[in-house]
UniProtKB/TrEMBL annotation:
This is Flagellar biosynthetic protein FlhB. One of its GO terms (biological process) is protein secretion. Required for formation of the rod structure in the basal body of the flagellar apparatus. Together with FliI and FliH, may constitute the export apparatus of flagellin. It comes from the Bacteria. GO terms for cellular component: plasma membrane. Keywords: Bacterial flagellum protein export, Protein transport, Transport. It holds the Pfam family Bac_export_2. InterPro entries: T3SS_substrate_exporter, T3SS_substrate_exporter_C. Belongs to the type III secretion exporter family. SUPFAM superfamilies: EscU C-terminal domain-like.
């Protein structure tokens, strides 16, 4: 048995209402983690794999907001997911025209 097969599968789900800090909505290991991931995939939710972040977030309680120390990292992940979904801030509309106009 190698080290890879000994690793515990972990999953943490966050919710973000756009106003307050993201909150922990689900955590789990092994079979529960598999179920969290399966539900997320079936709902079309993007999944970010980061074992270190997941391990840290596993320490938080359900409903707890992420700590301020993680705001920047989580904000970058949320922004990236928004972009993957084709959502951009209103100020970005016609950004390509602004860039061409300045060239």
């Amino acid at each position: 048995m190698n080290d890879e097969s000994k690793k515990t599968q972990q999953a943490v789900a966050l919710s973000f209402d756009g106003i307050s800090a993201p909150k922990i909505t689900a955590t789990g290991k092994d079979l529960v983690a598999d179920e969290i991931i399966a539900i997320a995939k079936s709902a079309g939710i993007h999944i970010h794999q980061d074992p270190h972040l997941s391990e840290f977030l596993q320490l938080l309680e359900l409903g707890e907001e992420i700590p301020k120390e993680l705001y920047l990292l989580i904000a970058e992940l949320i922004a990236f997911v928004y972009m993957l979904d084709g959502k951009f801030p209103e100020q970005w509309s016609n950004l390509h025209q602004k860039i061409v106009a300045q060239a």
